[in-house]
Amino acid sequence: MESMEEVMFKAQTLIEALPYIREFSNKKVVVKYGGSAMIDKELQLSVIKDVALLKLVGMQPIIVHGGGKEISKWMGKVGKESEFVEGLRVTDEETMEIAEMVLGKVNKGLVQMVEKLGVKAVGLSGKDGGILKVEKKLANGQDIGYVGNITSVNTELIDTLIANDFIPIIAPVGLDKDYQTYNINADDAACAVATAIGAEKLAFLTDIEGVCTNPEDKNTLISVLTLDEADKLIENGVIGGGMLPKIKNCIDAVNNGVSRVHILDGRKNHCLLLEFFTKRGIGTAILKHEGMLEHES
Amino acid sequence: MESMEEVMFKAQTLIEALPYIREFSNKKVVVKYGGSAMIDKELQLSVIKDVALLKLVGMQPIIVHGGGKEISKWMGKVGKESEFVEGLRVTDEETMEIAEMVLGKVNKGLVQMVEKLGVKAVGLSGKDGGILKVEKKLANGQDIGYVGNITSVNTELIDTLIANDFIPIIAPVGLDKDYQTYNINADDAACAVATAIGAEKLAFLTDIEGVCTNPEDKNTLISVLTLDEADKLIENGVIGGGMLPKIKNCIDAVNNGVSRVHILDGRKNHCLLLEFFTKRGIGTAILKHEGMLEHES
Amino acid sequence: MESMEEVMFKAQTLIEALPYIREFSNKKVVVKYGGSAMIDKELQLSVIKDVALLKLVGMQPIIVHGGGKEISKWMGKVGKESEFVEGLRVTDEETMEIAEMVLGKVNKGLVQMVEKLGVKAVGLSGKDGGILKVEKKLANGQDIGYVGNITSVNTELIDTLIANDFIPIIAPVGLDKDYQTYNINADDAACAVATAIGAEKLAFLTDIEGVCTNPEDKNTLISVLTLDEADKLIENGVIGGGMLPKIKNCIDAVNNGVSRVHILDGRKNHCLLLEFFTKRGIGTAILKHEGMLEHES
Amino acid sequence: MESMEEVMFKAQTLIEALPYIREFSNKKVVVKYGGSAMIDKELQLSVIKDVALLKLVGMQPIIVHGGGKEISKWMGKVGKESEFVEGLRVTDEETMEIAEMVLGKVNKGLVQMVEKLGVKAVGLSGKDGGILKVEKKLANGQDIGYVGNITSVNTELIDTLIANDFIPIIAPVGLDKDYQTYNINADDAACAVATAIGAEKLAFLTDIEGVCTNPEDKNTLISVLTLDEADKLIENGVIGGGMLPKIKNCIDAVNNGVSRVHILDGRKNHCLLLEFFTKRGIGTAILKHEGMLEHES
Amino acid sequence: MESMEEVMFKAQTLIEALPYIREFSNKKVVVKYGGSAMIDKELQLSVIKDVALLKLVGMQPIIVHGGGKEISKWMGKVGKESEFVEGLRVTDEETMEIAEMVLGKVNKGLVQMVEKLGVKAVGLSGKDGGILKVEKKLANGQDIGYVGNITSVNTELIDTLIANDFIPIIAPVGLDKDYQTYNINADDAACAVATAIGAEKLAFLTDIEGVCTNPEDKNTLISVLTLDEADKLIENGVIGGGMLPKIKNCIDAVNNGVSRVHILDGRKNHCLLLEFFTKRGIGTAILKHEGMLEHES
Amino acid sequence: MESMEEVMFKAQTLIEALPYIREFSNKKVVVKYGGSAMIDKELQLSVIKDVALLKLVGMQPIIVHGGGKEISKWMGKVGKESEFVEGLRVTDEETMEIAEMVLGKVNKGLVQMVEKLGVKAVGLSGKDGGILKVEKKLANGQDIGYVGNITSVNTELIDTLIANDFIPIIAPVGLDKDYQTYNINADDAACAVATAIGAEKLAFLTDIEGVCTNPEDKNTLISVLTLDEADKLIENGVIGGGMLPKIKNCIDAVNNGVSRVHILDGRKNHCLLLEFFTKRGIGTAILKHEGMLEHES
Hints:
Six copies of one chain form a homohexamer. The first copy, chain A, is of the alpha/beta class. Chain A is globular. At the E-F interface, helix 1, helix 2 and helix 9 of E face helix 1, helix 2 and helix 9 of F. Chains A, B, C, D, E, F: It holds the Pfam family AA_kinase. Chains A, B, C, D, E, F: It is found in: Cytoplasm. Chains A, B, C, D, E, F: GO terms for molecular function: acetylglutamate kinase activity; ATP binding.
């Protein structure tokens, strides 16, 4: 049996969450789910529990997930090699078929975890209800097959599901104008969906602490980054490499109306809850300008 | 800055609340607010914060409050003595006038506290929308004036407010068939309202630990009491005195469809949260039979 | 048994009301209730019956009431002197407490009368649902305590109640940004509410005949006053004294979209009905310009 | 200009109507419109104004009208003789064609008068939306052509129009199962419609004072008739002749749930208003049993 | 029993209709019904079946009909001569009365046919719900009586009926500002209604093949006519005579937002279906410019 | 260009469909999609077009599909042998994983085809929204792994999608009470879904002509089979083998409220349209008793 001090600390914690719950009530939140948090079983459960809690306290979470490592594993199983250009998977017809199957399996696996917690979920791909329309994306000018650039998002199905209290869980697959299937970068998909549905927040679960002025030293983590500051960090090269497209996505999202984009360390248990419901900030928040600081920061 | 352990403990607490939040989502909960919790400023805030949190995580709380001590204070101010028969205030016309004024002040004071937390509230008396209809109540066969027995509850106004996300806060005043004003016992009012609106829970904030087999020894607290057990305790005199009418109210409420009636110690900070959202039980829960134990017990 | 002529005259009266009923169907009407009409028992009933009839024939009445004389009476009961600066009550904490209690009693008394006529009513103060937000008002530059100037009106609760066929009855009490209670001038409150909810009409029940060019001679009553004419009467001093702030309120209301503001003689039985449903005008109507004359004038 | 006494009498009349308006609010009332009240221009306007007022104060009136005399007139114009068996018009194909045309003209004429008063109306026949389904009716065992007995009423169209605040005005024409057109007795149609839509009241505008124990002496008018009493009057022959089928219709309507059927003297101006909104009863009311007396009787 | 080839051809036909059904789903279509198609019994049934099918596959058809020949016939029956100025019927009071009666009969006859197919219909004139408001129309500067020019269309009743799945069938009769009845040209009425309700299509059933460059040679039929082309044909006199006002109506409709106006040959069985659901065009389609060609053309 | 005869035949075909379209309007129809119709590209398109047309003319189709052959193919690709007991696939964890992936791919492929026709579709498995709950199914008493028996169907998600005009396409995968994934027989799933949502029709696309008294001779096809007749055919062994469980499913569905179950030959182009919209029956219809024959039979 827990001590009375512990019990009171618990009550205090719930009360501490009160202003955040009130503030985010009915707000849409897109969670880009990927990286280590998708592989480690304990982290998986931690993320899914966080998302379920967001839903139960009145927010409207939407999950957009990746599945790169799992796709590579199944490519191997059927004796096919994975090939990448500029970080993008070269996607011929058979690769596309395998990718879609694997993403579908991952997708329904997430549905299963959410449903097990007693919360309603629906697994979708960007084909369902015509959510994601794409055109071919070139890698450095080179045709690498069925890799798509999102051209439009149809939010009708997502809106219908949210209005009926289902959590939409979306795999990054879409159709071009001839209804051919394409693979989509999950970060791009999350960003496009967040913008299209008018999300309040977009949270990327990543395998880093956040944005650091010195990536080698996690004590240099930047808690809050305005668009102007982000531009400067890009200019002077602090943000570069694999971080660059992600940050550009974040900037786009903020420019298109998402109030706050979070780069969170998905390797930490309950990173979503800690970011959303406690005073202690986690990772890096990107927002338009300082005036938009939330009270918790 | 808090330590990482503290932070993780907080996350754990929020996650621990998940099944309770899910289970009580959209359920109506009547809180009878009275006793010490209404007088001590810190306890007041603690109760109001708890109720606001219940609302924010998706429950539908309704407050029914008393105000006896405050009424006596104002009786004194205008030079009038308070007189009681069988625990009921003898209520002539002027007393009724003062009682209604004081209850109105207490009522709007609670509205003020809830609104300050950013949650919508409306202060009502049983006159508004004809909520409480009464007939004269005798004390031991004696006419003690405008003291009423509830004969019917019109829930239309309460339902309208709940459906529009206001917390109704109700003072125990009603009208008889000639539209004369009557004073009502707050426990009776809470019980009648809970039954009429189909509440899932009815929680009495009291100045005791709960029901004890030996009232002198709080280690004999009974956590769960079925109707059969309660009947027996009444029969063999363990429950008696001022406790008797309260327990009878509880039994009535359970018999009329309220799943669970709680007798909580209002002198403990956040007793509502602790009871509703943690494994550790507080006070005594009264329910139909053992099979109805909630998972938390 | 009445004669056939009387009966036919009655039918004719009902038919005469037809165009007014059609014209005002579903329109919102704010009635500022105060003065003699609040004290005389017969006048009280006459006003309440009029308001109930407005509701029953399809209009949406809202009552805003005062209670100055009653407050002074109770101040006396607890041995406190009333003090005024520039017609505003100096309001220390205890005075505020008493004022709120008395206004609450008056408020629920009106609810009781409307309910007795079989029409649904809800008694509110400006605290409920955050209806009235204020800031401190100075009297001639002097701090006279908790007397408030309305800064904003939140109509959500009023709209909800109207949509569900309740008549809102509002006491002029509000909260400042720190959620401190303030007393408000009832005329100001009526005017602010009428403007905020988009009322078609605002009717002040007063203790005068209306605006007279010679206040001593009620034969000089002005039936219709345009804004331009009102300005002139203020300029040349015909309107002055206690009348001035009331007329300024009327002008504000008309400028903010209320089609017609009526200054009625609340000492006349059924003055509301006579003004709204018969050809014979009562009191003074203030409107934007002559082109807005209703057919009845 | 009217005197103050007149004005106060008017106010009093409006207030007197208050309980009736409240009681009948949203109730459906079927008015069978026929006889002198359809021919005299002044009476026409009086009836239409009454119906418009019923609508404006919140009732849901439906008009079912006849047109016998007008049909005979047009039969003459095209050189065709009218022929009756047992009071029913022998209706060959050409007669049916003329009857339908004339009823259509009368119908749209009524629409025109209601619309002119600023109230929305729609003219229908029993063909529209399949309202009236019939089978052939024999007169004394004799086939007299397209004269129909109502077999069912489809209320969907009427309900739709009422819900959107139109007054339905219905001509008594229907279709049999082969979709052949039939003429219907207007009393029958009014009765069937009142029963099917669950009307509170059904009022017949007739050319008599009401039911009299001695038809020669209008001082013997019966104000209230219970079903038992009506049966007795039929048995002992007081009710007979043309009155018999009308009274049987009334009895049917009451037996099928219409609370009160009124036989009114349509030759009196505003007979509907006088019956519905004043204490003085007009004509004869038929109801289930004495206990159902309205307060006005 | 039909052969398998026939059966497959049928399936193919249904499938061929798929894109048209999808494209016109929920779109409003006004059908001006007149000419031979109103007289020949077989053509009547063919038109009504077409309209019923449009409704059943998800379109929202509205019929506006004429009745000139039938009116002349009944004028004769009552011994009155028809007289025309500039193609408009001189309409004195009695003529108006007859015209309204005959149009009413035609109107309810169409309702009857639609209802017989199991589809819900309501027959209206422009008086009902104040649909058509008019002013007097002069013929060549000459007053020819109750012939009206449409000044406004109130779509509330039409919208209500459509929303409840009734087909509105409208006779071209209207009221002026004094609520006097007027006769209206049916083409004008169809055009005004189509514009006011925002119809996608307006189809005129006529007694010609469509617009021909040489009216003598039906091989010169123009399938598609843009507004520019129509203007040219009017300028150089190819379109003239009785065709001119009809084409001007079409041009107005297109200019006011109707996407496509069709001049169809009502003498051909199922001309509506053939135009709307097969690749083979019928008659002449008038549209804004070539870019608006539908896929079927 | 097609001949005029062809065109008229087309119009006739559309008109012939009118009574069926009217009759099935808004009715739910479950199509079990499997067998040859899922493999042949042309048949696939034919089925999908039929379903799209059902939707467009107002029915509410739901597809439940299988995927056995495709699963076996992919089992082979990763070097795993398929094993069957009593016609049920032995399903270890890896087989389940592959089956779910393949069914997911098939599922989204169908979505893609429907979307390409301009109709909205959503691909689901029985996990989404908790649609299909199962328990382990034994084959002849033998545990063959993750093969499930449906124990309950949650229709909330299906109902939500239908109400918003999406076609739900469902893969036969479900969860047991521990949220473990199971494979389900597609016929069972179709039958359970049809029963749970209250479908009017359930159509099985099979690789046979229908039920024949002599399976070798397709001229012995039974067009209509009542439950009694079906029982007899089972008793005397005419129905047996692989047909037996399918017919038992049909009988269950009819007993649980599905009006009509069709066994259609999916190898015939547009078999759904021919069955639903033409007089010529296809395959075998199973219904409660002869009295329920539709007009088309």
